[in-house]
Amino acid sequence: MESLSAVVLAAGEGKRLRPLTRNRPKPMLPAATRPIIERVFDELIDAGITDITVVVGYCRDRVQSHFGPTYRNVALTYVGQDKQLGSGHALAAAQSAVDGPLLVVNGDQIVDREIIDDVVRAHESATAPATLGLLRRETVSGYGGVLLEPDAGLPADGRIVELVERPRDDRNYRLNAGVYAFEPTIFETIDETIPRAGEHSLTDAISHLVEEDDAAGPVQGVESDGLWVDATYPWDLLRVASELFDRDVPDRTTTADDLASVHETAVVREPVVVGDNCEIGPGAVVGPYTCLGENVTVGTNAVIERSVLDSQTRVRPNATVLECVTGQGVEIGAGTTIGGGPGDVRVGDRVFEDEDLGALLADRVSDGGDVTYVPGTIVGTAAEVSAGATVRGTVPAQTEVRS
Amino acid sequence: MCGIVGYVGDDGVLEVLMDGLSGLEYRGYDSAGIAMAESSISVHKRQGDISALEEALPDGSVEATAGIGHTRWSTHGPPSDANAHPHTDESGRVAVVHNGIIENYQQLRDDLEAAGHSFDSDTDTEVVPHLIAAARDDGADRESAFRRAIGRLEGSYAIAVVFSGSETVYAARNESPLVLGVGDDGHYLASDVPAFIEYTDRIIYLDDGEFARIDESTVVVTDTDGTVVDTSIETVEWDAEDAGKSGYDHYMLKEINEQPTAVRQCCGERVSELERTIDVDSLSALSVPERVQFVACGTSYHAALYGARLLRERGVPATAFLASEYDTATLPVDESTLVVGVTQSGETADTMGALRGANGAGATTLAVTNVVGSSAARTCDHVMYVRAGPEIGVAATKTFVSQQIALAMLACELTDEYDDDLVEALRDLPDKLQSILDSSSGREIAREYLEADAYFFIGRGYNAPVALEGALKMKEITYKHAEGFPAGELKHGPLALVTDRTPVFALVTAGSNPTKTIGNVKEVETRGGPVVAVTDGCDDVARYADHVLEVPETHSALAPVLGNVQLQLVSYWVANELGRSIDKPRNLAKSVTVE
């Protein structure tokens, strides 16, 4: 276990999370108040990993300047993937930084240590070139599907016979949790695997391993019950936060945090997380299921429920904010109403009906007050909304919305 | 100007010393050396940085438990193997490392040479081992010989010494920094905490005129008379993790990217938007002085110019002085004067000299510094920390921003004159800085003007100090010619230098006389000079500029904080394209502890 290096893949943007990924990659989006990847680091460290390599690419400064050279006294080595040519290509970028068997996890999905432990244990007691963490889920469409065959000769739950991305048939797929243990030969395998449409995907490399089974030994899969949460769309950050609350995943709380200032007449309805240097004004009502990032200001008599407000967001007095996700540096004006879902959300040509989303405001959106956001509204970065306007649908970045 | 380190213990003296030197490299890096004491002393030293010394080290195990080390930034004598520390006497009985300047060394050296001592180096330091050897020859024991030698010195020093046949390190301090570390596996000394922070966070600060003796089991601090001084052990919070580049090519770029965090830390608990207050605990005891004099050097001086302006606007007569030019004999300084020393390290010799002068003249003194427990912090009556976190790159970046913010808060706290907009703007500042970092086109502009003959920087009002700072940054790390001027001065001379090969960076923001600055921009345009406007979009300056570096709108008094970041990025990328040694520019050191 101690000899295992971990590689965390954090180079991709996560395009489906736009517009929140305009200035940072998906791993840096908030799961409650802390970046998703920070929780991944936590689970790795709790599982005993002492050596973490992070593959960075898109907006890499944001990852590097947030964590610096170490996290919880574990050294972080950053390697750059200059062009995002797939997860296999990303892992290959880490080759020079690791030595021996390695654990690979995605930096943009919350995965708990139980899955990590299971994969590590199964890999250590076998001579497999790869061990994959799998989950039983009712539906795996949209994710990676894995077909498993029982194999009594393996410490894991079986040998993997096929990997299918976003499967459409109804065979008995397990969900690929994105937690892998590999022997160092994986780097050769990535090299040998023929890229598809210019992309070197890690699952293609694993499929390649599955095909040449005889030579390198079976690729094994291990099933876990641990927590696994992925945000596919930006409004999923609300669901991610509530799952963390419901599972009581430790985070800062209002009572424990003396760096925030909460007015004595403000009402905080747990569960709530309040970041450093937040200010909550007189008569404000915050919670339940609400996360306030660093330096968030909540003005007098404002109401915030079931929302994830990222750092430096300011809510002016008397605003009502329900089921809202904000990026950083957002300003919600005085008396503005974000009334909560359900609402229809439009992304490109697709319409997602009845999503529980009041509004999604990307980085540095500001409104002049008394604005009404129709449920399901998405506003792009740095858009400015005039006082009294009603906003609906999808507003592109840097536009001005007049009343 | 150097860093020294010493260690006695059983944790591998060679490794501890080399780690220590790495942690001090920011203090100088033109040569390095170590000495380890057993029955005889082994000295290894080399011109060049620490990797050159590493190659010169012996293979195999080291028996010694006591040693000293040094990283040098030349003052007396050029960088060379011979001038590198440690220095020894002729018989090799004693080895010495020293940071500071011995002012009477020529006289001492003449006397010693007359007495038959021969010298190997051009350094002032080499008199010390000879003085100690001479005292030993007279029969003095090791400690008395050390004390006697120190007693002969005039000037500034932090000195550490080892003797052959002894497992003790002796040290003394006067006007140069020196701290002791108390660990589980031995005892440490160094010019600065990062040298041994990975081994211990328990620190004893030495004061001027004190001596220390450390061996494996004890630390003894004495005064000039040899009386034992009661010392207190303090625990420092210094994240060893902050000493890594975390994926950036240079500390400078890392530190530029840390500015939103630095500002957040600087403002934390001091700025309250809902209470509408700016409240700095450590300043609450200060009342409005009759006059304020800032003393500072380099980048800190530019921050001081900004601070002085903010105070004058609030009706307090305030002037910024270059610390090396500050002379209490020629200035009105009395007990109703507040003298503010602005120094990142808190060890800058010029600033320390000015602050001591101010103390002597009866003024109230305030240190605005980044380093807790630094000499400035302990010398002054009051201290305000800028809380930027450790800065390793020689070119100051995040500490400048933090100094600007700290001085803005100082002006507000002292006079109680500020509006709600400023409070809100301070709270928004980290995100505005982040938005510049997210979107700056500094790199493209740097490439555009890589071949320039010179770079000029102009601005008025709040922006004038930033114009000076922009030029200083460019000089420091690119080695290109650069000058900054208050924009109105351009036509009084420097305009003669403007050609189509001299880009002019004009800071044009609301509240800093944009209309008049645009007039100066047009003067440049007429002479064919390319113009890069750093602007929040006011007065439509983009029409007259060849390129624009955008800054978000903010309170007019904080606009220079944002404009500066764009200029930092341009300098960084010019230097990067030119392949300069960005974190350790030639001839420069981070903390200048000589006058």
Structure description:
The complex is a heterodimer of chains A (403) and B (595). Chain A is α/β, with parallel strands linked by helices. Chain A has 2 domains: 5-230, Spore Coat Polysaccharide Biosynthesis Protein SpsA, Chain A, CATH 3.90.550.10; 237-401, Hexapeptide repeat proteins (UDP N-Acetylglucosamine Acyltransferase, domain 1, 3 Solenoid). Chain A contains 8 helices and 38 strands. In chain A, the strands form 8 sheets. In chain A, strands 16-19-22-25-28-33-36 form a 7-stranded parallel sheet, with no helix packed on it. The model of chain A is unreliable at 252-256 (pLDDT under 50). In chain B, a hairpin with a 3-residue loop joins strand 2 (31-37) and strand 3. Chain B folds into 3 domains: 2-235, Glutamine Phosphoribosylpyrophosphate, subunit 1, domain 1, CATH 3.60.20; 244-439, Glucose-6-phosphate isomerase like protein, domain 1 (Rossmann fold, 3-Layer(aba) Sandwich), CATH 3.40.50.10490; 440-582, Rossmann fold (3-Layer(aba) Sandwich). Chain B has 16 helices and 26 strands. Helices cover 32% and strands 23% of the residues of chain B. In chain B, helix 13 crosses helix 16. In chain B, the strands form 5 sheets. In chain B, strands 3-2-4-1-10-9-11-14 form an 8-stranded antiparallel sheet, with helices on one face. Chain B has a 6-stranded antiparallel sheet with strand order 5-6-7-8-12-13. By secondary structure, chain B is of the alpha/beta class. Chain A binds chain B through residues 23, 54, 56, 59-61, 63-65, 67-70, 73, 75-76, 78-80, 259, 261, 263, 276-277, 279, 281-282, 294-295, 297, 299-300, 311-312, 314, 328-329, 363-364, and chain B through 241-248, 254, 257-258, 261, 264, 267-269, 272-274, 427-428, 430-432, 434-435, 437-438.
